[in-house]
Structures are given as C-alpha cells and as structure tokens.
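cron nightly-structures :: item 1 of 1
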Amino acid sequence: MTVLEQLNRPEIFLICGSIIALIALVCVVFIVRAWRMGKKLGMDVQKMKRAVTASATFSILPSVGILLGVLALSGSLGTPWPWLRLSVIGALHYETQVAQAAAERVGIQLSADQMTLQAFTTIALLMSVCIMFSLILPALFTPRYTRRLQGSGGGKKRGGFGDKAMVAMFIGMVSAYLGSYLGDFVSGQGLFTFRGSWAPLLVAGVSALFMALFTYLSEKKNMAWLENFSIAASMLLGMASAAVIH
C-alpha cells in the first residue's frame, strides 16, 4: 500500500468527516438562531430570504478557490487532511505555503512520489501548530482591542493601521514567492527558455494582471460584485495559463 493510499484510508475519512459534520451542524444552529432572532426583532421575512439567497449565491464561486486548494494538496497529502484543514480553520494561501515550506524542510518536494508517513506527520503538525495562533491571539486581545475602538469613537486610525499591516503581510508573502521563483529562474534554464523556471513567473504575472483587472472593474466601473469572485477567478485563469504555457 502506497503512502497516498494510507492517507486516503476510510478511517481517516471518517475522523475528518466527523469533525467537518460537527462544524456544519454548528453553522446550521447559528443560521436557525439568527433567523429566529430576525423574526423576533420584526425584520422583513422577504428581505431575510433575499439576504440568505444572495449570501449563498456569492459564496459559490469564492469557494471554488478553496476546492482548488483541496485538489492541489490532495495529490500529495491525501484528500481527508486538506479537506479538513480548508473546511474548518485553514486559509488557502496559508495551507499551501506552510505545507510546501514544511516539505522542503524535511528534504522532499510536495508530491506523492516523495511523500513518506514521517514527512506527512511533520507537515500536518506544522500546519496545525502555526494556525493555532489565529485562535489564541483573538481570545487574548480582541476584547481589549474592541474596548479601545469603542472608546475612541470607532477607531478609524487603528483600523487604518490594521489595513496597512494586512497589506504589508501579503506584500511580504508575495515577495517571498516571487523571490523563490526568480532564484529558480536565475539558476535555471537561461533567459531565452520558456520551460522550467519560466513557468511560475509567467503564471504569477498572468494571475496578477487578471486580479488588477477585476480590482479596476469593481472599484472604478461600479462592478462591486466582482470583488467576491476576483481571487477564485484569478486562480482559475492563472491555472489555465499554466496549462497553456506547458
């Protein structure tokens, strides 16, 4: 039995599926309680129905990006683990980045033919430990931060800093990826070769161009609905460009 077959055993599906089912049940409970509270407050039922329909509709395409992440990681980590991670607490950019970094640290590539049970254990442990801070830090600091916002009349200044910090974090993450791609390119096949190390740079450029286009349309052309689909659509178009390049 291969490592990938062991990672896809029914027992692992049962464990991960049970956790996901519990989370889904909690979501249903919150939906029911929110609906009942809305009716208790005298909200228009038709408006509530439209809100539910709109939310469900605008959740479909963004979730495609999550599905792509599950499919991408399932080829090396099996299906149950990525399914659990990206269904409960994980984020697409986080899971793929940490899994790749952990694989490199144990001396393998994130692929099925190089995966071992020891490597999977290390990757899964690192993915789990790092994401724990997204639960711990809000529990420790959110109440105090909320009180400060309320005491400062909305806290626009602090909110602005939070936005800048988030943008800076993503710029750093993108720079790290591009730096890795550039390093592979410089030490790779040469300036005039459209194979090997060229592909990640071209795919990143195509994805960035489409993301810029969607941002322009949503902000300048009154197409705000595109904002909900921009990331997933950029990923799909980037993957399509990778297929064309190869």
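cron nightly-structures :: done
The longest helix spans residues 45-77.
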